[in-house]
Amino acid sequence: MKTFTLKEVSKKINVKPATLKKWEKELEEYLDIPRTRQGARIYSEVELDLLLDIKQMYENKISTEMILQNLQTKDEPVENEISEPPTSSLPMVSETMPEVTNEEIAIKNADQFFDAMDNYKQTFLSEVKDEIRSVLRKEVVEEVKKEISKGTYYTVKSISDSIYKTSANTKAEIEELSEHIEKTAEQTTERLHYLSKSIVNASHETSEEIYTLSKQLSESTEELAHYVDITNTEINSLSEVIEKDREERGKERDHFLHEITQREAAFQDLLTSFRDVAAAKEKKWWKFWE
Predict the structure, then answer these.
(1) What gap in Å lies between CA 11 and CA 21, rounded to an integer?
(2) Kind of pairing, strands 3-4 and 43-44?
(3) For 179-208, how does the pLDDT look when each residue is reduced to its tens digit (9 = 90+)?
(4) Looking at the domain assignment, is residue 204 inside a domain?
(5) What is the CATH number of the domain that holds 64?
(6) What burial class does residue 54 get, using C-beta atoms within 10 Å of its C-beta: 0-12 exposed, 13-18 middle, 19+ buried?
(7) How many domains are contained in the chain?
(8) Which of 62, 123, 150, 184 would bridge with 57, disulfide CB 3.0–4.6 Å?
(9) Is residue 69 scored above 50 in pLDDT?
(10) Average pLDDT over the chain, rounded to whole?
């Protein structure tokens, strides 16, 4: 019997391998694909025909539940098997049922024939699967027995040697690791001691620098306070001088205003007297001053 691989079946029925695996999972009760010892799928012509039927049903928009029912119906034994050839059954049908036409009889006989073929196909498929499984199971058991009988002594010896070597290597690695840890601990202690000394020295130097800076800051503060006092004294003296000068300027301004007022009054008196004299002499030239 000719067999096919998954890729070959995929090319033949034009369905992706992933879809075939999905069908196998969904219809595992009726689509049980045998496999080799390496786990590769083996398809016979029976599985190929079954996959074509399933593809046709999926293309006709039939649900998975209906497909399972159809496959279950195909697995059930045919109640009305064909007992005689179609040629001999036609006269009997015509005698018992004269109203049935020849076309209807042919369709009924064809349906019975296809049902019988499906039943035969399923039976043959199950027999082939059982045979393949039994052969594969026997081959696997024989191979395992041979491998066990041949390799028991060598396997045990190699395992014991490997365990001994592994334990020796592990012991050496542990000793090496412990030495490395001790050296690292000593180096770490020395580094910590050196670091502590460095920190102490740095703290002393820092404290001295802080004391020096604080002393300088105090001296600078005192000098600044002295300069501030001097500046305040000078500012006060200058403000007093300015105030005195302002008072003197005010007095001078008042004096000048008084003199201007007196002179203006004298000028007005002089002008009035001059007008009076001019009027007395009946002369009009004084109007020029108006």
Answers:
(1) 14
(2) antiparallel
(3) 887 888 788 788 888 887 887 888 788 888
(4) no
(5) 1.10.1660.10
(6) buried
(7) 1
(8) 62
(9) yes
(10) 77
